[in-house]
Amino acid sequence: MNENVVKRGELLAQTVIKGLASRNMTGYYAADQAEALRIALSLIPEESTVTMGGSMSVHEIGLSKALKEGNYQFIDRDEYQDKRAAMLLAYDADVFLASANAITRDGVLINIDGNANRVSAIAQGPKKVIFIVGMNKVCGDVDGAMKRAREVAAPINAQRFGLSTPCTKTGSCMNCKSPDTICCQILITRFSRHPGRIHVILVNDTLGF
Length: 209
What we know:
The chain has 209 residues and is an alpha/beta fold. The chain has one domain: Rossmann fold (3-Layer(aba) Sandwich). It has eight helices and ten strands. The radius of gyration is 16 Å and the shape is globular.
């Protein structure tokens, strides 16, 4: 990566971290995926019950693999025949892992969900929530973050899941009411009432969608 691009990401991350702190959330800067993995594991005590949403970023930094191989109680919903039962276990987990569809420069997190298991767990339940967020997801304000979530993340995820929505054909959000839509629930996390619950690791790399 170009050194000027790297420096810009580092400086921007510090702005986002200050914004998160003002919202009772803790931010961390990771120069690369390996550092992001180290930070994440430092936040998860061994023997913790850990689960996650469908985050590509968590997989990309190797966190899900490390948890499966380590001394953790990792709930992998892909290994459950009853997916709903696995999702419900998230609400009493020690740690929930996720990414964000977008984050603003001043620390507001935007997430869109189809089944709402991810956004509901982020909002309430797990004792600790850890976000893995690439700097490619940082936007100027809530309007820009919402636009990114709907115009970039949602169409790509709909394509990834093989859904039949207008955005899979056009590449752009059509504000549809398709039975397959994944834009059912939109969560704006602008403040955490519980200190020490929400942690955001900003990775100076392109992660997820």
